[in-house]
Amino acid sequence: MYDAIVVGARCAGSPTAMLLARKGYNVLLVDKSSFPSDIMSTHYIHPPGVARLERWGLLDSVLETNAPLITKITSFMGEPPVAAPPPPPDAPPMKALCPRRTVLDKVLVDAAVEAGAELREGFSVKELTRDGERVTGIRGGDATEEAKIVIGADGMRSIVAKEVEAPEYNTIPTLSYGYYAYWSNVPLEGAELYMLSGNGILAFPTNDEMSCVAVGGRIDDFHEFRKDIEGNYMKILERAGDLGERVKAGKRETKFVGTADQPNFFRKPYGPGWALVGDAGYHRDFGTGLGITDAFRDLELLVEAIDLAFSGKRPIDEAMADYEAKRNEIAMPLYEFTTSLARMEEMPQPDLFVSFGEALQAMMPEGAGV
């Protein structure tokens, strides 16, 4: 019997397994995929997420994949685009990353295994096992495994959340769509964010001197966009000053990847014998690129709660309720900003970005600066 089974071995699951294993717990980590492998993602890591990679001793491993450290982000608003005011001279130095998921997830999985977690790739969970109302384990294929707690880190369509019927709240339907591709020979001075009327653009440097360039729009315009993905993608870029020219002069190295499946919700992240973390417990629009950073923050809170409970220092219901409360307190301002931005009803004012920066600062690990 394991102390914990973690379902999903990507950005939420592998670090959860790693931190639990580092504390001496017996952990099974399962995923239907094998690694390295790709997944649709904005894959941007804000400074609080980078700070956690550094604290976990994994930042150098990510940088060694040729993912450049991003030390500048510029926000542009309106047409023609006008740059928002830069941060004050005394602002802490910025450190962000945009590593491809093929390399980031592999670094995280390997770190979990190195910490002592048992990894099973190609394992699809079919159902949870129970003793009355308490979840006791997982069943997949011919295997059944038991644990004190089963942690769903398996994304917004989580099988764990579905099986336990985790209640949703603060739910907002999909507000936008997004598409991206990877380009070579597109020079970027750090990360670039463009807010246009009815559209947004994100451009980040990523591995091997390539750039990830994403566009998005209102959900009501999705079907029209889909009629000519490449043509409409380029039309949006043409409205972003010289970024469109830089992209035209570059070379698209991948197919376009996108979605209009971006529900916004919180889920109750715990119950008898189970917990949720990452997108399984809290999901928001891609526009602010918060998914990985949120997952890194929340999984630390979850691991702390589990450790307090398993070590007998706090009752588990009390510890897990505190996990949910802390998650929501930090996430709510960012959630409100993200969903407001995703509606694209009006041009955001500069003070909103100041508030966003302050909310990000609240996510920094203690003792770290942005």
CATH class of the largest domain: Alpha Beta
Shape descriptor reads globular
> Under CATH, the topology of the largest domain is which?
FAD/NAD(P)-binding domain
Order of SSEs, N→C? EHEHHEEHEEEEHEEEEEHHHEEEEEEHHH
Tally of DSSP helical segments:
11
Percent of residues in β-strands: 25-35%
**What percentage of residues falls in helices of 4 or more residues?**
25-40%
Total number of β-strand segments? 19
Question: CATH superfamily assignment of the largest domain?
Answer: FAD/NAD(P)-binding domain
Q: What is the average of the pLDDT values?
A: 94
Tell me the radius of gyration.
20 Å
Give me the CATH architecture of the largest domain, please. Answer: 3-Layer(bba) Sandwich
Provide a descriptive summary of the structure in words:
- The structure is a single chain.
- Helix content is 34%, strand content 26%.
- With 370 residues, it is an alpha+beta fold.
- The protein folds into two domains: 2-35 and 103-173 and 264-333, FAD/NAD(P)-binding domain (3-Layer(bba) Sandwich), CATH 3.50.50; 176-259, D-Amino Acid Oxidase, Chain A, domain 2 (2-Layer Sandwich).
- Strands 1, 2, 5, 6, 7, 8, 17 and 18 form an eight-stranded mixed β-sheet that branches.
- β17 (270-271) and β18 (274-276) form a beta hairpin.
- α1 runs parallel beside α4 and α2 crosses α9 (291-310).
- The longest helix has 28 residues, at 316-343.
Blueprint (SSEs and pairs):
Layout: E1 2-7, H1 13-22, E2 27-31, H2 47-55, H3 59-63, E3 73-77, E4 82-83, H4 101-115, E5 118-121, E6 127-131, E7 134-140, E8 143-152, H5 159-164, E9 168-172, E10 176-184, E11 191-196, E12 199-206, E13 210-218, H6 222-226, H7 229-238, H8 243-249, E14 251-252, E15 257-259, E16 264-267, E17 270-271, E18 274-276, E19 282-283, H9 291-310, H10 316-343, H11 350-361
Parallel strand pairs: 1-2, 1-8, 2-5, 3-11, 8-18
Antiparallel strand pairs: 3-4, 6-7, 7-8, 9-16, 10-13, 10-14, 10-15, 11-12, 12-13, 16-19, 17-18
Helix pairs in contact: 1-4, 1-9, 2-9, 7-8, 9-10, 10-11
